[in-house]
Every structure is written in structure tokens, then in C-alpha cells.
Amino acid sequence: MKRFLFGVLLFLLISTSIQAQTNHNKVKEVIVVFKTHFDIGYTDWSDNVRYNYANSMIISALNTVDKSNNLPKDQQFKWTISGWPMKEILSKAKPDVKLRVERAIKSGSFFVHALPFSMETESSDLEPLVQSLGYASKISREAGLPLPIDAKASDVPSHSWILPTLLNNAGAKFLHIGCNPASRSPEVPLLFWWEGPDKSKLMTFYYGEYYGTSPAPPKDWAHSTWLAIIQSNDNHGAPTYEEYRAAVKNVEKLNPGAKVRVGSMADFYNTIIKENPKLITVKGDMPDTWIHGYMSMPREMKSSRALSKSTLNLEAFSTLSTIWGRKPEEPIHTLIDQSIAYINLFDEHTWGLAMSHGRSGYWAYGKEFEKLRAKGYYDDIEYSWKEKGNYINGSEKLILPTLNRELKRLATSVNVAGNRIVVYNPLPWERNDMVTIQTGDGFKKSLKNVATGEVVKLVKNKNILQFQANRIPAMGYTTFVSTDEEGGSTKSNLSFDVEKAMMENEFFKITFDKQSGTIKSLIDKKSNKEMVNTNADFKFGQYVNERFAKTQTDKYAKDYIKAGWNWAYAELGRINLDDTPYKKSSGKNAEIEFSKDALSVTAIMTFKGDADLVHNYSMVFTLYENKPTVEVIWSINGKPADPWPEGGWISFPFNIENAQFKVGRLGAVLDPAKDFVKGSNLDYGFITTGVGVLDKKNQGFGITSPDVPGVSLDRPGLWKYSTDFVPQRGNVFFNLYNNQWSTNFTEWVEGSWTAKFYIWSIDHYTDGSSIVMPSEEIRNPLMVAFTGGEAGKQAASLKGVSVSEKGVLVTFFGKNRDGEGDVIRLWEQNGKTSACRITLPVDNTYKSVQPCNLRGEKTGKEISIKNNAFEVKLNANQPASFILI
Question: Where is the Glycoside hydrolase family 38 N-terminal domain (predicted)?
Fold first, then answer.
């Protein structure tokens, strides 16, 4: 969402409105930074924007550099650019232009800051964010320059508190955030220390009025140094020489007596830190007030979450395969880098064109919308959204076939003849889980774990095989073969009763409401607690479609828009709506079918569309043998495109009074009652792991989805902006889709897709065992491959990397992108400081590990590896990286 002003430089806007803010506090020095706001799209199709970056835009900037070379050094033009656009410029520019750009980087005329571009950070995951720093690092290293210590984010109003953790642990010192002028801003000081969940502190400059800053400081500015960021509008590029000189003279005029020099954000930090500034420390997360836009592409968002894991799992698997004596047949790291680039680009804040541009149709609904779409009036805007989705499609094309081939190669390599199934565990602790594979016949009624000798039941449904795989080694694998032996206990804890609409296993008893097709009662059999709040406004496991009214969209716009109503309403509200009232719909009179096999019992609810709810969907509820979780699957078939403001939810009202929530966000589990900064998004946010709903005894229930990150607590949070909301009722709502953003996110959601949810009981709450570990196991399923034929030479079961503290993640194990050798990265997620022992595979050749930061810079003394292991102290929620030597 961007301000719709083209061809107007920001400094001209500000210099007109800032006259009353002439420097009253005698600032001694002003560092002037020039930047443009990069949108990878929005002003045009993204491919066209990329072309302009490497041609007209960079040539214009180079011309301004050249014309300013006769000025004193500190008055010469310098331009700050984020990492990924500069990477694109260097790779796509014509040879003569590329040479000029390289000279400008080496001479300091172009500064490349640490971040790749403006991102919606909480849509990402830990390791993709780390890898995103590599664009700027690589450019700096190749130019023989120090790594940048400054970083810049523009437009997006609020960000995950992973940023201070990420940047501080990468060696960066300073972050500037420039907010979109229409959007409400978090309630933070202008300059402050932002403390991340690992206690990292980062000097942060938050400017709520626009992308950059004002030419002169406000009257209450307490420091001797000011940062004047003159940032041009969306993809406008660098100023001409004349505009540049006018901007500098304007800064001089508004700061009489101050030294004015042109430089970088790092120059500002290095100057102001010498003042020993007394800054407030802000401890808290700032949920993104735009983040719901990502659920306008629910299928791609689901795939992005999976690819954030599987891409890095493939890297680790490839590294382990080499240690185990079986090198990959293709350059895996090249595929990984491209996949990560696609994931990063999906997390970049631009989605496509906006209806307000007038280039592609206009806001219409019902039959008028269908007519315009049929005539092709929305083709341009729909193509721009397709460009965004193609990043995820591109990542899938790289990773899924490669991972499939590598797993099959592993199955072929093990020293077991005949039909065998190999199961690989991508997590650094031993685990058990259900495995599903599709293959032909050739298996009997049971399987034997070659390593342990355990015999397990095998359920066959035509070509679909399922079994419980136990004791799969940490980041290792084991092999299963067919056997006639009896597998497991002959007594089953699974049952169902059609008349009572009930099913159960050892852990839970579920009773369904036949009319609504939802859960009426869910008993935790161990504690005899009822999970379901039957007095809630929503039912448990209920699909709800909301269609919003103009009164609601207008109220949201009035609550959220802080400036520029005349243009911002078209970007943030929803124009051309009539007075149709709000409507909340759910399916009813479901067709219910129960089924049971040796491993699971299932209830399938099928709902047919009617006048109240026009699309078909189904709900599948499953209990597994020996598995203390409830699985819920929602599936929609043929949802029609509809630009009317709407959203879909699955509701889970838990039976807990005065609920306390634990939310697994990016980098840490937090308490929304105290860890969210006011002014950010208190109504809706993304989770990375799961949610705990607890009573005063720290007991309760956990829930997560590997597919749906968007969550509201207490009540659905679309088209709401609250400044002081604290959730109290134990209700969790997962947002299946929405089209709330009226700017450049996808404006109508259609098609068929599925989403899974998992629920479990919490007895004694801890971050690791109650939230992180179960959620990570759900997001990182066991990986499986089948083959037959002759035996290979590799052991039937091998261990990989293990950690002594479960809940400590290995987010990266692979080729060092910042130098020689391999890197292993740990990320503490239990929320506690502890010593952790890391055990490496037996046949590794590593002798020691060298601590380094997230950008590969050495940070401490080498640690010896003894008996294939080393031990480190990990601070709560902190990453720890090591070069393996």
C-alpha cells in the first residue's frame, strides 16, 4: 500500500510543510541521506520495474554522481540502495553501466544497506531472513568494503521484533523505519533502543510521517546530530543534479549554523553514538498492520511456509549425504540460493498493481464485476498478482523434485535388498510420527524397523501406505522392510459411534453436533477436562465466512488512517460499496461419515453450498492411535472470486476462563498482553509456531497450523484497528483467507485448497515442550522414500546432527555462503539460557568450530570438537552460528 503520488520528490513535499520546524535546538551536524523507495512492482509489472532499475534508474543516479564530482567530498551525491535491487542492477545492467556502478560502490557514491528490501518481516521465517542479508554482504565483500552496519525499511508501518535480533547478531548497528504516511504507527519514540526477544539492542529511528525523515529535527530533538533522509517516492529513482542541490540547500537553510554533509545512515550512527545518547529501550514486538494481506493468497502462503522449511532441510540433507559418503549429483546450494531468493521476494512488501491507479478496471461487485472481468478489464492487475505468486511456484519447481530425487537416491543407497522404505527426520532430536507414502504393492501387513527391530502395523488403502515410524534418529534416517510378523498391540483404542456422533482414542473423546458439523464436546481423557466452550458465539472447528458492511470498512478506515484522507480512503477503505449489511455464514446439515482403520478414526463432514453460503467445503476430524493430538482439515472446493470485502475463519473457542495466551511468533514465544507495542496490530497477526491457551495454573491447550499463519485471539480481527485491545476469552481464530487490503494485494480469492490444524493438551507449560517442539514437528514432517531392487552400500540407519536441548533448532547446516567451509546455525527457542551439546555425524572430518555472526564474520575463539561433539552456551532466543573447520 503506497501513497499515490507519482513524479513528485519527497523533499519538495517536506520542505514546503516543514518551515515551522526550523532548527531551534542548534543541531551541530546534519547527515543527509538520499534514497528512493523501491517497490518490486506496484508502479508497473515487476519485470518492468526490474528492467528500469538496471537501465534508466541507475543511469540517472550515475549521472547525478558524475555531475557532483566537482563539489567538496562531503557535498558530493551519494545514494543509498538496498541489497537485492543492487544485486539485480549488477546482474542485468549493460557492461559499461555495470563498471560505472561498481566504481560508484567502491568510491562510496553508492551505499548498499544491510537489508534486501522492505519486507513484511513476520511473513518470513528465521533462516530465510538470515539468508536475505547475503545480497548486501556479497556486494560489499566483492567491492572490498566492510559489511554495512545500517539498514532501512520503508512503507510497512510495523515489524516483528526479530529485526533487532537479526541485525544485531549480524553485526549491524542501526535501523531506520519510515512509515507510510496514511498508516497508524506504533507508539515508539523517534530514536530508541529496540530490544529483541534475545535481549539484543539495536538503535532504531522510527519516522511515522513518511519513508524518510524531515530536513530538520522537531523542536524536542535532544541530540546534536540529525539524520535527514530525502527519499523519493515509489520507484521514482534518484534526483537530478539540480533537484539534489536544491534539497541540500534546503537542509542547510532549515539548519542554520549546522554542518551539513551528504553520507549514509551509518555515518549518522557513528556520529550520534559518540554523544552517548540517552535513549529509551523499547522491549516488544510490533505486529504488522498490513500482514493480513498475505492471506489474500492462501495457497501460496501455505506453500511459502512449507518451502521455508523444506528448502533449508534439503541443504542440510545434502550436507549430511556428503558426510555419509554419497555426494549429491547436482549443485544443491545453487538451487537453494534461488529458492531462498524466491521466498524472500514473496516476503517483499509489494504485491502488484492497485485498483486506485486506474490501469485495470475499477471497484465493482456482483454481476458488474463478472462482466468487467469477462471483458478482460482486470487482466493487467491479475497478471501483477500472478507475478507475485510465481515466486512460490518457482521455488516449488526447484525444491520439490530435487528433494524427491535425493530421498530416492538415499533409499537406493542403503544396504538392504528388496522393497524398503527409508524415513528421514529433518529435526535435531529423535522423534516418532505417522508416515504416509504412495507406492505399488509389494508390502505385507507389517513393517520392521531395521535398526531397532520394532514391528509396526501397516495400513494399506490401494496404493496409499501408512504406518507409525518410531525412533527416527535426529537429522538422520532409518529403513523399514516388509514382514509377516504381527505389528504392535492387537488391542485398539480407536472407536466411533454413528448414532451418538462420537469417536475417541486413548487421549480424546469427541462428540459432534450433527446440525452444524462442528465439535460439540472434546474431552481430554487424561485430565477429564472439556476443551470446548459451548457458550461461545462461535462453535469449535466451525468454518465461518464473514461479509463486511460499508459501516465496518469505513470505521476501520477512520480508525486507521492518520493523514491524507482524500487519497488514503481509496487505498485503505473499500469504495463503491452499497448498504448491504454485515453477514456471517457457516455450513449446516452436514453429511457425516465415519471410518476407522488400525491407525486412525475419522469423521468427514461435507457441506453443500446454499443461499446462505454459496460455496462447498468439507471438514475432516481425525484421531490417531498413540498420538495425543486432534487433527482438523478444512477443504474448500471451487470458491468463486468475489471482490466484496470478506474473510474466512476456523474458530476454536476453548473452555478456559480469563485465558492467558502464549503466541509463538517469529523468534520467540510471547505474551500478547504485555509484549505487543501499542499502535501496532493488536487484532490480527502471524504465528511461526503455535498458540497456547492457558488457565491460571499454566495448564490448557495448544494449537497450530502448518498452513495458516494468520490468527486472531478472542474475536475475529479483520477490518479492526484497536489501540488497547488485550485478548481475554479463550478463543483462537485462524484466518483462511481475506481480501481486506484495497491497494495492491490480491482483491478476490478463488479456487480450491486445504488447511490443517492440530490441537493438544498442555499439562505443565514451557515454551519448548508446549509450543515450539510440537509445532516444529508438525511443520517439519518426516520425509519418506520407497525403492526396491539390489542393496546399496550405505548403512540402513544413520544419525545426523543432534542437540541435547530439544527446542534448539538447527536452522542451517550447509555450505558457507560468506567464505570457505560449512556453517551450522543453532537458534534457541525454548526461551531459556542453557548449555547445549551438539553432536555431529560420526564420519565428519571437522576438527573445530569457529563462532561467527549471521553474516559469517568471526566473533570468538575456536572450539574444539571432541568425540564428534562440542558444547556452547546459548542465550534465550538467540542464534549462534559456527564455521565448521
Answer: 30-244
Q: DSSP string spanning 242-279?
A: HHHHHHHHHHHHHSTTSEEEE--HHHHHHHHGGG----
Contact between residue 210 and residue 17 where contact means Cβ atoms under 8 Å apart: no
Rg (CA), the chain: 28
Instruction: Catalogue all structural domains in the chain, each as residue range(s) with its CATH number.
Output: 10-18+27-275 (3.20.110.10), 535-591+632-775 (no CATH), 802-884 (2.60.40.1180)
Residues 6+ apart with CB under 8 A from 441: none
Cα 231 to Cα 81, 98, 109, 429, 858: the distances in Å are 11, 24, 16, 48, 34
Specify whether the CB–CB gap between 123 and 291 falls below 8 A: yes
pLDDT tier, 7 (very low <50, low <70, confident <90, very high otherwise): very low
The three cell numbers of residue 841 are: 555425524
Task: Return the axis-axis angle of helices 550-560 and 565-572, rounded to nearest 10°.
Answer: 130
Produce one character per residue of 361-392: b if its CB has 16 or more CB atoms within 10 Å, e if not: bebbbeeebeebbeeeebebbbebbebbbbbb
Whole-number Å distance between alpha carbons of 865 and 845:
10
Could you read off the pLDDT of 487-545 as tens digits, one per residue? 777 688 999 999 999 999 999 999 999 989 999 999 999 999 999 999 999 999 999 99
Q: Which residues contact 648 (CB under 8 A, 6 or more apart)?
A: 543, 544, 545, 546, 636, 735, 736, 737, 738
Least confident window among 20-34, 87-101, 590-604: 20-34
DSSP per-residue letters across 734-768: EEEEE----SSS-S---EEEEEEEEEEEESS--HI
For cell 465461518, the residue is: 544
Phi, psi (degrees; rounded to nearest 5) at 304? -60, -40
Phi–psi pair at 681, nearest 5 degrees: -90, 100
Nearest 5°: phi and psi at 253? Answer: -65, -40
Q: What is the dihedral of CA 434, 439, 440, 444, to 10 degrees?
A: -20
- pTM reported for the whole predicted model: 0.96
Give the closest residue to 89 by CA, choosing from 144, 139, 45. Answer: 139
Q: Which residues pair with 592 in a beta bridge?
A: 605
